[in-house]
Each structure stands twice: as C-alpha cells, then as structure tokens.
Amino acid sequence: MSDKGFPAAAREALANTQQRRNLGHATRTIRAKRAAVVGEVADWEALRDAGAAIKASAMARLPELLEQLEASVLAAGGQVHWARDGAEANAILTGIVKAHGATEVVKVKSLASDEIEMNEALAAEGITAQETDLAELIVQLGDDEQSHILVPAIHRNRAEIRELFRRTLDDAGDLSDDPAELAEAARRHLRKRFLSARVGVSGANFAVADTGTICVVESEGNGRMCTTLPDVLVTVMGIEKVVPAFEDLEVMLQLLPRSSTGERMNPYTSLWTGTTDGDGPSEFHLVLLDGGRTDVLADPHGRDALHCIRCSACLNVCPVYERTGGHAYDSVYPGPIGAILTPQLAGLREGRTLPWASSLCGACYEVCPVKIDIPSMLVHLRGRIVRDAAEHGGVRGRLSGERLAMQGLARAFGSRRRYEAAQKAGRVGQWPLARGAGNIEHAPGPLHAWTAFRDLRAVPGEAFRDWWRTRSS
Amino acid sequence: MGALRIALFIACFNDTLFPETGKAVVRLLERLGHEVVFPEEQTCCGQMHANSGYGLEAVPLARRFVRVFGEYDAIVTPSGSCAAMVRDGYPRLAELAEDDRLGGEVAAVGPRVHELSELLVGVLGVEDVGAYFPHRVTYHPTCHGLRLLKVGDRPLRLLRQVKGIDLVELPDAETCCGFGGTFAVKNADTSAAMLTDKMRAVLDTRAEICTALDNSCLLHIGGGLSRARAGTRTVHLAEILASTEGA
Q1: Within an 8 Å CB–CB cutoff, is residue B3 touching chain A?
Q2: Class of the CATH-defined domain B5-123
Q3: Which of A5, A419, B84, B154 is deepest in the core (most CB within 10 A)?
C-alpha cells in the first residue's frame, strides 16, 4: 500500500471524469436492481436478522467450527492446510502446483487470493495465474487494479474494454462494443486455458462445518469450469467464511444474490464436498487463511466486520464510493466495508485514513444483508486510531494540531462561562474575514478547506442565548 | 394533548450561528400553547468529538447533558444529528468510558429527547401548525434524521399543511449532501463532489428554498449555493413552520 492516504487519492480519482460517469451509471443501475428484488421479499428484515445471527454464532465459536470443518473435509477425501498469513498460504499453494509439475493455474474470482497477492507470488515461482472471471480478466489484461468487490472493472465502460480486447486478445480485430460480442471474445480466449490447466484455484463464499461443503456463487459459469475441469483443486478461504450447518445456506443464498447482483438467484451455485471418484478433481486442498482475522475477532466493537459476505451492496449505495471509485481506497476491499476491514486486517498499520472516508450517512448499514453497523464501526476505529496516535505517535502524536484543537474545544464546552466567552471570541475574531451578506469567502487554517468550495456563514452579532436573556429579563 | 413544559436543547451550532432557528422554535411552540424553557447551562452535545475519534473527550459533555436536561420530561432540539447523538451515540460513549451509571442515565433521558418534527407529529400530534409561507420549497432529508432517528415523512406532513407553500420533491433526496462534520474539511474534495450533485438536484427543482432538519447540512448546502451565486437559499424547517401571515 502507498501512504498517500484517502483524501489525496480521492482528489486524483475525482478528476477522472470518464470514471465518474462510468461509476455513476453502474452504481445507479445496480442500486435500482437491488431495491427491486429486495422489495419483493416480504420477510427481508427477518432474513437479515437470520443472516446476522448465523454469522455471529459462527464467529462466537470459530475455533470449534474450523476444526469441525477440517474433520469433515478430511473425511470427504480432501486435505486441509492452515496458513497464518498470505505468505504461508501462497507457499502452500505453490508447493501443491509444483508437486504436480504445473506451470499454469486457472482461477475462480477470489478476493482472498487478491488479498494475499497470490498471482504475484505464483509468478515469482514461474507459475501463471489465469483469471477467468470476465471482469477480473479485464483487469488482468489491462494490468489494472480492481476497484469493486463484485465488479472489479466497474470503472471501465464497454468502449474501453473493446479497445483493451483489440489490443490484447488474438483474433479480436473487428470486435464491436456489444457486450455479447465482448463476452464471446473472452470466452474463446479462456476456453483454451480451461482445457489445458491441471490446477484450479478458488476462494469460498461459504464453507459448511458440519458437511465440509465448499460453496461458490457466480454468474458466468467460468468458476465452475475451474472447479470441475482440472484434476487438482485448491480453495484458499478466509477463516471467517465458515458457517455452522448446511441449512444456513438457505438464508445466505437468499441474501447474497439479491444484495450483490440484484438477482433473485445467481446463475451458478457450485457446491463440492471433498472428492468424488470419477467426478471432478481427484485431489482437493482447502487452505484456511487467518491473515489478521483472529486479531479482528479480538476487538468486540470491530469484529462484526468479519460477518461480511462480500456482496458489495454497501459500495453501490455509498455516496463516497460512487464518486471516488475503488482505487482511492488502495485496498482489495474498497468502499464502506473496506474502510472498516482494511485497517483492522492490517492491525491498524495500513489504511489509517480510511475510517474517515465516510460522511457517516448510514446508507451502507441500511442495505447490509448481515446488518453490519458500519457507521458505528467507523466511529469506533476513528477512536482507536486517534488514541493509538496519541499513545504511540510520540510528541507529534500528542501535540497534533487537531488533537489540541479538539481538547481546547472540549474544555470550552465544559463550562458555560468558557463556552459563552468562546462565542464572543468567535464574533470578534472573524471581523477581518466577514464581508458582504455575512459570509466568509476565505478562511485561514483548517477552515480553508471549507471555504475553498463553499461560503461560510459569519457568526451573527447575537447568539440565541443572548436573545433569550433579553427576552426573559 | 394538553400544554407541555418543553426544554429546548438548542445545539451549540444553532445557538452560535443560527439564532433565528431557536427563536422560531420558541415562537412556534408557544403559539401552539406550550411553555418553552431554555436551560442556560447547556453547551454542546459532543457529537463532533465523538464522531471524529475523540469519544473520551466527549464523555464529560454527555455527563453535562444528563445533568442539565435530566429533570425534563420533554426535550426538543431543532437538530436531527444532535438528537441522534444523545439517543444513539451516548450509550456508546458510556460504554467507552466504562461508566454504567452514565449508561443508565443516558438510557433514561434518551427517549425524552425529540427532534422538532418528532415532537410536533409524534408527541404533540399536530401536523397543521398554522404556518403561512408563500414560497417554492424543496425538502432535503438529512441522513441522521432519516436513518438514525427514522423521522420518516413527519417533516413532509408538516410542510404539506403550510398555507401558500409550493412544495416540490427533491430528486435523489436520500443521498447525503456531503457535509458529514469534519468530513467536509478532512475530505474536502469528496465532500465538494457530493455537494455539487446535491446542489444540482436542488437547482433542478427550481425551488427558492431548500429546507431540512439540520442547520449543519444546510450550512453546507447553503454555502455551496451562495458560492455559486445560485439564487436559491436554505432555511431551517422550524423557521418555515414558525412563519405566519403578516409576520
């Protein structure tokens, strides 16, 4: 991650007018689709409650469920590996690929794999990772970065994709920007890879502890190609993806597609349990990735972030995300969920400006299918980061301008006398700035960021309390 | 509903920058036959501190609020976000401070704090407050009123009864204006982009006036409209409801 921070990265992103149009159009479309299909479910709120309860109960007994999952997968003929972090997970995967003498893997779209920079790790070992999700393929071909959880290339429009395909795909010479034609070009390109790859790699939407079943939902069917055609399948999943029982999928598979793509049901739901003779891969490996998740679990006010089922509804309704796009978050997990997940997964060492990348409007909480109270968690993380800076940031942390200003204001608000004195000081202090109809157009210090875009109302001559006193005397 | 004795929680922002809003609340409630008292020891609810990562600094302000307002049965504030701070935010501050006693006190006072439209429609059961306001007006539902207080259509029900008003619907009304407290300065560019879209929606209505429950959001929207010399201004809901014929 770069240390530019969200405000500066957002400033650059906001200047990209094409991206603004693309994102505005895409998020508006998907918001409307979601609202329509959610609106037709009479017991949607009860479903959300059920989803939240399933996740909360899974997190409350995570160690036990993971051991149960391991036992179930082993009993079904699979192998299970435990990875403390991304490096360990990548090493396990690399070892499996090499043991089979393979130099290429085909991938199901997987955020966990992006989180641990799997493609880069494989490349360093001479192994090519082929993305097969259409949007992931677009990102990979363009040497681009993902900007959305569900639609990684949401920042691109079809004219841009047409140009990319013409540049990077064989025999795409007279391609139009018709979506069906673009999809057909990608299909021809990928088909060869599916038939030759010996190792498939996936993530997991859900992993069922009591049966050992892994579940992946998708729209295109390319994921199923990866999980069924190669002889070896490796699933790398974050440990928070476990659900206790098979019945839990009934709730989750209603919540996820409606929240995610705005569909009643996703076109492809793949479920597999270990291995089956003569059907699909003969070797199955499950890699359980911690990657900071147990640290998140340790914070009672932050742990609900692990309930996320990666639907991306919060991104699509977020007024900040809609305007800045995903790249400004500089994380695999952008948008509101990224703003609470990224800093927590990194133990607050990264993404420290992200909890402030929100106006706390609450639109995300309203749509979250598992009711993660993202605004409250943003406030909680702001507090953790502010206190961390004061405790561990040395003199600069303790004496930051913001901290001193906040403490000064808190002191002023602590007594009526000081508060009223501050009101008067504000009236007197502003006189060189106020002009015309009681507006300040150029303010100094931090308020300059306000007056760069808006006029600032000047403090009027009489506060309400002054009027009240004259009235009641 | 008989005459009530109502304590006015003005909010520091209104007290200092928007005294007309407080005066309007007093005029309006007295016109409806209620008694308004203003506890002068009140200062600030601490919302800015709590929402900016300085929750511990806001704890004494929560204690102060309980001390100042604890004795009143009905408390009104012309600020959706400050009402939400008390009802939704104070329990979390008490938890942060690990102060069970404060937790009990805020749980007791919270339900007695009402945003103005909640008090009028929900508690006093009145929608026609006898107001007259011959202007073209659009209403922006502020986020904390909408999603934390869930005021619903109460403000619109009040506005629809105002004589002479030409009330027009705001497109994409429920999208945040981009204020967000310190967000407006910490992420000024993103805030400005959100503001521009909100201003476009407001201007598309051809309204003279954009109204809302919160002067903080209106300071933002109004500051943008003023900078653009747009010819549309912002007025708090209380001031519209307090206006009468000949006044």
Answers
A1: no
A2: alpha beta
A3: B84
